[in-house]
Amino acid sequence: MLQLATSFFISFFQNFNIWGVLLAIAFGAIWFACFYPPLIKKPWHWAILVGGAFVTLFAISFIQRPLQNVIGNAMLKTWGEETLMKWLLLSGLPTVLIAGFVQEGAKLVPVVIYWWRKNFNIDYKLALTLGAASGVGFGILEAQWIHNLTLAMGWKWDLVRVYGIDAFAPFTERFFVVAFSTAASALAGYGLAKGWGWQFYLIVSVVHSAINYSIFLMQAQIFRLSQAEMLIVALSIVITGIALWLRWRKPAS
Known about the structure:
The structure is a single chain. The chain is mostly helical. 81% of the residues lie in helices and 0% in strands. It is built from eleven helices and no strands. It has helices at 2-11, 18-33, 45-79, 81-86, 88-91, 93-117, 124-152, 158-163, 169-194, 197-219, 225-248. α2 (18-33) packs antiparallel against α7 (124-152) and α6 (93-117) packs antiparallel against α10 (197-219). The longest helix has 35 residues, at 45-79.
């Protein structure tokens, strides 16, 4: 299991393609800029960004995926493949919930460390931008992985002539996933500073799980690919809208 976890970790840095990396950075820059982070006055935001990326990747590789494998194998032995497929919408819940809670928790770790070093007292807007930094860090890291895999599997401009705008689906979906990753962590950071840490963590983890659940909705033939993508876009826009409203609203006089 350790070898599989290590291989997955390393896979994020394989199939390197400069265009995939640059596109991921561009996506992250667009959404992060919306939060207007104080990168010049507080350059350690960059440390939070990098920390969020690698702590989350480590958590996925060595905590999330092993947990999913253990629980998945236990369910398989207990109920069998036929029963699990029959009850796919229920049997898929542990997988998506583990992913949501592990990833959102991992992205919050650098913010929690800073909050702890400041004696559990930081400005809520600063906490929000710190959360955004951690979230966008992993969003960029994950996006370049997906982009590079897509390009390595043979994506070319010729596909646009065949499939039209649908050919860009792997990239447009990732654009909104980066938005969600950034905003969800921003909300978690905001909640931490406001004294509602576990409540906001619970909310963003459940929404994260809902996005991942679209995979099982497609497998059960309840959603088509276009509907799953619409769900991802809608939830990403809602979470981003809330986070940006909190970032830019004027304090009550």
